[in-house]
Write the structure tokens for this entry.
Amino acid sequence: MKLFRRAFLAIALVSSFLFVQCSCDKDDDDQPTVKTTLEKISIAWKLTEALKDGAAMTPVDGSLSLTQASKVATTYTSSTGSGIENPAGKASGNWSFNESGKTITFNPGDATNEKVVNLLTFDDKSLKFTWTVTDTKNNKFVYTYTYQPK
């Protein structure tokens, strides 16, 4: 009987030690994952404000989806409502991100239609950029678009 009692106490002691030891371990999963700026902006966006030379364009209707793979910008899709300039030039293509230069380059498949936009704000809550368009009469128009996550 004493042997049974000692074995039981030994098992209880070892079990409680393991329980305390396991609960004291630090788990790396508790550390928040820090996203890169590329990862933060590589999401689906909804156009919330469109300005042409500082004046609001209406109706504000559009979206932009930026994708990335293996920490490299890959493809985009872009749509805008009637009368709103498409910042990417065409509905889809490839894109690249220059964080230090604060630019996004949209490449719809041919070099003549490549567009570079200058980023004003870019994080996981807002994407705002501007670019200039020169028409056939050499008039320049400055567009500024603001997007929020979908």
Observations:
- The longest helix spans residues 2-24.
- The chain has one domain: 40-149.
- The chain is about 20% helix and 45% strand.
